[in-house]
Amino acid sequence: MKLPRNVWILGLAALLTDSSSEMIHSVLPLFLVSVLGAGMVTVGIIEGTAESIASVMKVFSGALSDYLGRRKALVVAGYGLSTLAKPLFALAQSSLWVLAARTGDRIGKGIRGAPRDALIADSVPPERAGAAFGFRQSLDTAGAVLGPAAACALVFLLHRDLRTVFWVALAPAAVAVLLLAAGLQEKRSRRTGAVRNPLEWEALARLGGGYWALVAAALVFNLGNSSDAFLLLRARQLGMEAGLVPATLVAMNAAYALTAFPLGHLSDRIGRSGLLVGSFALYALIYLGFALAQAPWQVWLLFSAYGLHLGMSQGVLAALVSDRVQRDQRGTAFGFINLATGITLLPASLLAGFLWTRVSPSAPFFAGSLFALAGTVILLFALRSRQAP
Q1: Of 36-45, 80-89, 207-216, 250-259, which range is least confident?
Q2: Per-residue b/e over 11-37, b at no fewer than 16 CB within 10 Å?
Q3: Counting beta carbons within 10 angstroms of the beta carbon of residue 201, is it exposed (0 to 12), middle (13 to 18) or buried (19 or more)?
Q4: How confident is residue 388, by pLDDT bands cut at 50, 70 and 90?
Q5: 78-114 pLDDT per residue, tens
Q6: Where are the domains of the chain?
Q7: Which listed CATH number (2.60.110.10, 2.120.10.30, 1.20.1250.20, 1.10.10.10) goes with 198-389?
Q8: 1-185 falls under which CATH superfamily?
């Protein structure tokens, strides 16, 4: 199936940028601890701060793209800022340098996220939105597989010279920015009347009850979606060899990359509602499986199923948002749905840590399954309300 030029450009940029970012992120904890002498609390503060800033930025950048009627400049600026932040990792002499680099990188991600998704939605007809979002997600996730693999090879070849790994990671990110600047095409939106602030109450109300119910479903669902670190700890606790634990994420991302595009295309043909509800229900079963698992071989199946859940949900949810809001509000809509999923990571992880230590290692996964079921109920309510773009 033929996809528009912009979808290809954004997909290839996602592949290059995620390869670059994951090359850095896969060795960054080792660099912080072994080279800079940071503690695990410092690692957690850096990650939590950076991700929280990115979540908030997505709302404002999405709304700004609606207000301006232009998205390309924000997309290029976001990717550019993340690229400019990358040399700080190689030059870092303290944890504060790394915090600045991670913050700059995540601010860049926050700036580009909602305008990028809105630009994809603007570039395709509604009946092809699922395939377009799925295609971008597939290439993005392929980068999450290639990046750590390249980092492992470089660490071996360079004899653990982590600073050089960071410098090498700059190259694909820089190519991505050049590709976006030269390749993205955009038509300015035609405006009638005065341009209004997309974050005014009246404008937010125009998004519709169905959209806000969708945001609520994503928020509740993600309250049980803690850091993947707990999945890795659970794998180790069930007896998996330490050297094999990181490979479970490779299995998950491979399943995600292979399924996101075909399932997004399928959503264009059979509808998105059933796939999204099915993905929420599948997640509930996966987390129940992690709670009840007793052997390492079961973990491999669960991680692969988790990748399938991501393939069923991420691109399909984005396409559903684009279906349900007006063109001139897409940036704002993507910003708030991304905020709902992003701000829950910290409380979800804190809850998981509390349940793991105070109750049992199975407890976080029982809780995650229950939150997923609650989110499914809200999602079913949200899908009853339809709003045409």
Answers
A1: 36-45
A2: bbbbbbbbbbbbbbbbbbeebbeeeee
A3: exposed
A4: very low
A5: 999 999 999 998 888 887 888 888 888 888 988 998 8
A6: 1-185, 198-389
A7: 1.20.1250.20
A8: MFS general substrate transporter like domains (1.20.1250.20)
- CA dist., res. 223 & res. 370, Å (int): 10
DSSP assignments along 236-266, one per residue: HHTT--GGGHHHHHHHHHHHHHHHHHHHHHH
Q: Could you say which DSSP state residue 158 is in?
A: T
Q: Are 86 and 173 in contact (CB under 8 A)?
A: yes
Give the pLDDT band of residue 249 (cuts 50, 70, 90). Answer: confident
231: nearest Cα among 302, 154, 281, 164? 302
Asked whether the domain spanning 198-389 has the same topology as the one spanning 1-185, the reply is: yes
Distances (CA, A) of 109 to 93, 129, 232, 296, 303: 24, 22, 25, 35, 26
Total number of residues shown for the chain: 389
Q: What is the pLDDT of residues 38-48, one digit of tens each?
A: 654 565 566 55
